[in-house]
Design brief:
This protein is of the alpha/beta class.
Length: about 675
């Protein structure tokens, strides 16, 4: 069969129906015939000429339309030639920098206009691709911008930020509110003198900023961004920066230049940029560029032809097919190379085939092995992708160099994210084994009873670097709002102690610690559990709370510094965790404790004793005999005094961390 022709199935009494290609796309024969391995899809630009290539093996014809502006009503039509492996191409002479283009694709009798999936720039709202000289979008000094050193993923401390949230609050002192450049303004503060924006990030001491989607997404009008709000998990053009965060969305080169300037500014402040990527689904289904180019190829379908919907967003991308996987790998490596990204967070990573994530890791290793990869090791709903090949956290053993969020620890700490009134360890509701599981970085440990873990049936990480430890993220209630739902209104002091206890657990656990922006000063969204399209007054960081909760902020900042100073909290290998981390027997429930040593991770301190008490009363415990310095308690972090002997009181709803030398066996 000629796949570029349209076929009809006819029956003498039942009429005729057009034939759609389905299972053939998953066949080895189709892949062998049409997989294109070249690295030149999209536009290859130079000043003398530009070459255009688009993969559309089932199209009857493809033309390119060149527009002089983003709003030109008509453009110049140029036919493209059908080449190897289903790739259509044409070469145009002259310097086309700044011009706009789309493809006209014909299947049977229908012709549609399509934005190039490989477009690197677009006009407003992503309706037309733009040809750009990327070299001219680099800010001064960009070529010499170094990769920030990161010896191990567990050395990272990640802070999740939405571009708009950081600077939308009136009175934050940031001029470029809601924009890329607002993130790197220096010297910004409130009228009370509270540091905001970039100065806040530096003051807190985090190592990486994780940005909610900054690719071109569909649901914000880029020409009137204030008219609506969205997190951005609705992909439109994967290789294009979002225009609503730029000073102008009209010329696509502006957003590229400003995003690079932002990444450069963060890098110069010692902060790496992590990009939140959403390759598991697209905003449009039938109307997407993917589906218009090769109908039926890019998405998973049920036998009846309906879209599989494991994303809960209407479709899921079929990355088990070679050209879909190629697109994802090409896209990730493009962002890494062109924008010098320090990491990628994969939305609903459980919808991706294991071989896709393995291919992404291999490709990024060729650029820089230090680039972080982590994601949500689950799906949102049932998928046609078999569970055995999904990138679920349970399959992390097959994903070296890729981490998953530890949802076990998240809900063990504070209670189930969807059961509003259910508490967790910090509220005194138990879940000790689950907390131990998170503390150990989700690796196998002989002192953990896996029959009592919230979700996981056993250890799923080979190394602690495969576990992202966290208590809150953009999804669901903030930790503070969860505490408001699970404690009495009058328990304000206890809520503060619970926050400090949670942060102490997170920032001393093995694995990669992850904080939601504003968590360090008790961020609230007024109880909104799903603020993806709620207005700015719900989502914006209220910098006044940093002053109101200064004690919590300073406590969190000191814990971050402690983690950086103490390699014992950043063990690299699973065997090291099993050898150097010893859980303690404690006299009451709602307590977890352990000893790290001797000299865990090469730490200069021989032993660290770490105890967490979520009871509402102090508890006396027995610790190894020795001479101990108090490093952390409910009041602060630092050198807080000394303890001798083997008995010590742990305050109510508090951590206690001691550093010193055991002498019990002498």
């Amino acid at each position: 069969m000629d796949l570029r022709r349209q076929y009809k199935l006819e029956h003498p009494t039942h009429g005729a129906i057009p034939v759609a290609f389905g299972g053939v796309f998953s066949s080895a024969a189709f892949q062998q015939e049409f997989h294109y391995s070249g690295h030149d899809l999209g536009v290859t630009y130079n000043k003398a000429e530009s070459t255009f290539k688009v993969w559309a093996p089932t199209a009857y014809g493809v033309e390119i339309v060149i527009y002089s502006t983003a709003a030109s009503p008509k453009g110049e039509l140029i036919p493209m030639q059908y080449g190897e492996k289903g790739v259509w191409w044409c070469k145009l002479k002259g310097n086309l920098d700044g011009l706009y283009y789309n493809y006209l694709v014909t299947h049977g009798e229908e012709t549609v206009e399509v934005v190039d999936p490989y477009a690197r720039a677009t006009g407003p709202n992503g309706k037309r691709g733009q040809i750009v000289d990327l070299a001219k979008t680099n800010p001064p000094g960009w070529e010499k911008l170094p990769w920030l050193p990161l010896e191990s993923p567990v050395d990272a401390i990640i802070y999740e930020v939405h571009i708009r949230d950081l600077s939308a609050c009136p009175g934050c002192g940031i001029k470029a509110q809601g924009q890329y450049l607002g993130l790197i303004e220096e010297g910004t503060e409130t009228c009370e003198g509270i540091k905001t924006g970039l100065d806040h990030l530096k003051e807190l001491g985090i190592t990486h900023v994780h940005l909610l989607p900054i690719f071109d997404f569909a649901t914000i009008d880029e020409e009137d961004p204030a008219s609506s709000y969205n997190w951005g998990y609705d992909p439109l053009n994967y290789n294009v920066p979002e225009g609503s965060y730029a000073t102008s969305p009209v010329d696509g080169r502006v957003r590229i230049r400003e995003l690079k300037a932002m990444i450069q500014g963060l890098n110069q402040a010692g902060i790496g940029t992590i990009m939140d990527v959403v390759y598991n689904h697209t905003f449009h289904s039938v109307a997407s560029s993917f589906n218009k180019l090769v109908p039926g190829y890019y998405y998973r379908h049920h036998q009846d032809g309906s879209f599989s919907n494991g994303s809960g967003c209407g479709n899921e991308v079929a990355d088990e097919r070679s050209m879909v996987r190629k697109f994802i790998v090409d896209s990730v490596t493009y962002w890494a190379q062109e924008y010098k990204m320090a990491g990628f967070r994969f939305d609903l990573m459980g919808l991706h085939h294991l071989e896709t994530m393995q291919a992404v890791r291999r490709a990024l290793d060729l650029i820089s092995p230090q680039i972080l990869i982590y994601g949500e090791g689950w799906t949102a709903a049932a998928s046609t992708l078999p569970e055995g090949v999904r990138s679920l956290k349970e399959n992390t053993v097959h994903l070296p160099g890729v981490a998953s969020f530890c949802s076990d620890l998240r809900d063990g700490l504070k209670g189930h994210v969807f059961h509003t009134n259910e508490g967790g360890f910090i509220q005194g509701a138990g879940h000790e084994e689950t907390v131990k599981f998170g503390i150990a970085g989700a690796v196998q440990h002989p002192q953990i009873d896996y029959s009592h873990i919230l979700y996981s049936k056993g250890p799923w990480a080979i190394t602690p670097a495969q576990s992202v430890v966290y208590a809150e993220a953009h999804d669901n209630l903030t930790l503070w709002d969860k505490l408001l739902c699970t404690t009495a209104p009058e328990d304000a002091e206890e809520r503060l102690r619970m926050m400090k206890l949670a942060h102490a657990i997170l920032l001393t656990s093995q694995g990669i610690p992850f904080l939601h922006a504003g968590q360090d000063f008790a961020r609230t969204k007024g109880g909104d559990p799903n603020s993806y399209q709620s207005p700015d007054h719900v989502n914006q960081l209220d910098w006044g709370r940093k002053g109101e909760f200064r004690e919590l902020f300073e406590y969190t900042r000191a814990l971050i510094q402690l983690r950086k100073e103490r390699p014992a909290f950043r063990l690299r290998r699973g065997p090291e965790v099993r050898d150097k981390l010893r859980f303690l027997q404690l006299p009451q429930s709602n307590m977890v404790g352990y000893v790290l040593g001797p000299h865990a991770g090469g730490d200069s301190i021989e032993s660290l004793v770490v105890v967490f008490n979520s009871n509402k009363t102090p508890v006396e415990i027995t610790v190894p005999k020795g001479s101990w310095t108090v490093l952390v308690n409910s009041k602060g972090v630092g050198n807080l005094g000394t303890i001798t002997g083997s008995k010590v009181w742990v305050e109510a709803i508090s951590p206690l961390i001691l550093g010193g030398r055991e002498v019990a066996n002498e």
